[in-house]
């Protein structure tokens, strides 16, 4: 038989021993509790879903038609199988890079998004200030709710880019280019995948209008999301800052603004009008990537607009290596679509991307907690990138290459 256990000597704990056990978790002193508990972008998405009306959440979360393009983009990242190298010195890891000749703390750009004050009353200035704090660029959209001048004043030390939709009124578009230049924007992005608005069926089913219309269902919604509605009704009216529009669906506004007759000749003219770095966003074929670089683009974004335009479009991560090979060192290649973790960012860089643009990832943070939520999203991605690089045995972004991963065959076993 086993001997009986010796009796335990008990004592009252000292305060010095208890105090560490009840101290706030890391980050709790600087972040609201609901944000401090978010350990991933998916956690921020869950918080955002509880804090804004369904129509607002679905505007960010949704995609076009069957949302197949978005699902495939995320599935491609799920297929990534990293190939780590061990016994490398990763005591110091450098995540910094240069984008269009300017330093960036991460291979990350906060992408241009339309009607950002719909997600949170702080809007684009909150995103720009968060980007500046994170040491990465932010791109203001033509469809934004803050003027180029006001955004530049709100984040004067940020690396601010301006995204242009070339509309039917070419003179108005060129005036926006002039204003961006006068406000010292460091780069111009031309989006080329929006000949017409995509069929975003969640918005249609939710009856989303810009600005939100007041109806009986709206009044009921106010009771569920009082803070969001209070911010909407007690701050300046929600409207596009660079586009004239009355109350309408987002698709109506886009179709009224954009010109389906846009061609490569317009890109060439824009190259002549803008002296700074020019980025072309919405590249979905190797041939188009090669042509826009020949016309003077300094960077291309391999993107299907987050799955919000053409459903069943090419998957950016799968298209990326071919574009990188075709462009060579003549232009920088970026990627967006489906990125929700720092591991996704590392995978894209390993396949040749100079940087990744994220939209939904930081918008979940914005809906969850304004500027602090955006910063928290960026810090989550930064921690993911650092951890992934260390576990891969990589100390700098330049060391990453295609040999650090493979894409597993498509199928249920890859998720």
TrEMBL record:
Q: Does the keyword Ubl conjugation apply?
A: no
Required cofactor(s):
FMN
For this protein, the record's SUPFAM superfamilies field holds:
FMN-linked oxidoreductases (SSF51395)
Gene3D superfamilies in the record: Aldolase class I
Q: What is its EC number?
A: 1.-.-.-
What InterPro entries does the annotation carry?
Aldolase_TIM (IPR013785), Alpha-hydoxy_acid_DH_FMN (IPR012133), FMN-dep_DH (IPR000262), FMN_HAD (IPR037396), FMN_hydac_DH_AS (IPR008259)
The FMN hydroxy acid dehydrogenase domain sits at: 33-410
Q: Which UniProt keywords apply?
A: Flavoprotein, FMN, Oxidoreductase
Alphabetized GO MF terms: oxidoreductase activity
Task: Give any Pfam family that matches.
Answer: FMN_dh
Q: Which family does it belong to?
A: Belongs to the FMN-dependent alpha-hydroxy acid dehydrogenase family.
Q: What is this protein called?
A: Alpha-hydroxy acid oxidase
Q: Which organism does this sequence originate in?
A: Actinomadura rugatobispora
Give the source lineage, highest ranks first. Answer: Bacteria, Bacillati, Actinomycetota, Actinomycetes, Streptosporangiales
């Amino acid at each position: 038989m086993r001997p009986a256990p010796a009796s335990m000597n008990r004592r009252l704990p000292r305060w010095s021993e208890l105090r560490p056990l009840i101290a706030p978790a890391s980050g709790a002193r600087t972040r609201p509790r609901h944000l401090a508990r978010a350990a991933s972008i998916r956690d921020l998405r869950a918080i955002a879903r509880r804090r804004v009306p369904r129509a607002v959440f679905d505007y960010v979360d949704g995609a076009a038609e069957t949302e197949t393009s978005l699902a495939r983009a995320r599935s491609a990242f799920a297929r990534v199988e990293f190939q780590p190298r061990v016994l490398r010195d990763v005591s110091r890891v450098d995540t910094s890079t240069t984008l269009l000749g300017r330093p960036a703390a991460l291979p990350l750009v906060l992408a241009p998004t339309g009607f950002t004050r719909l997600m949170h009353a702080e809007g684009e200035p909150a995103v720009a200030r968060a980007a500046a704090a994170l040491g990465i660029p932010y791109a203001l959209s033509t469809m934004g709710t803050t003027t180029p001048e006001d955004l530049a004043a709100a984040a004067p030390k940020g690396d601010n880019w301006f995204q242009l939709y070339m509309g039917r009124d070419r003179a108005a578009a060129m005036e926006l280019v002039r204003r961006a230049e006068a406000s010292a924007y460091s780069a111009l992005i031309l989006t080329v995948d929006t000949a017409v608005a995509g069929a975003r069926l969640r918005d249609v089913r939710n009856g989303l209008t810009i600005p939100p219309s007041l109806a009986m269902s709206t009044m009921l919604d106010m009771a569920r999301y009082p803070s969001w509605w209070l911010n909407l009704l007690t701050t300046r009216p929600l409207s596009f800052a660079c586009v004239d529009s009355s109350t309408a669906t987002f698709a109506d506004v886009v179709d009224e603004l954009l010109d389906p007759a846009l061609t490569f000749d317009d890109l060439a003219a824009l190259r002549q009008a803008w002296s700074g770095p020019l980025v072309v966003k919405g590249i979905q074929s190797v041939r188009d990537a090669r042509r826009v670089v020949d016309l003077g683009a300094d960077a291309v974004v391999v993107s299907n607009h987050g799955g919000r335009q053409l459903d069943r479009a090419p998957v950016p991560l799968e298209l990326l290596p071919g574009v990188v090979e075709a462009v060579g060192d003549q232009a920088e290649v970026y990627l967006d679509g489906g990125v929700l973790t720092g591991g996704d960012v590392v995978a894209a860089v390993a396949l040749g991307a100079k940087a990744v643009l994220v939209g939904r990832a930081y918008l979940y943070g914005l809906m969850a907690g304004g500027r602090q939520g955006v910063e928290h999203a960026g810090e989550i991605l930064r921690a993911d990138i650092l951890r992934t690089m260390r576990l891969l045995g990589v100390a700098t972004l330049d060391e990453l290459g295609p040999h650090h991963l493979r894409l597993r065959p498509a199928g249920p076993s890859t998720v």
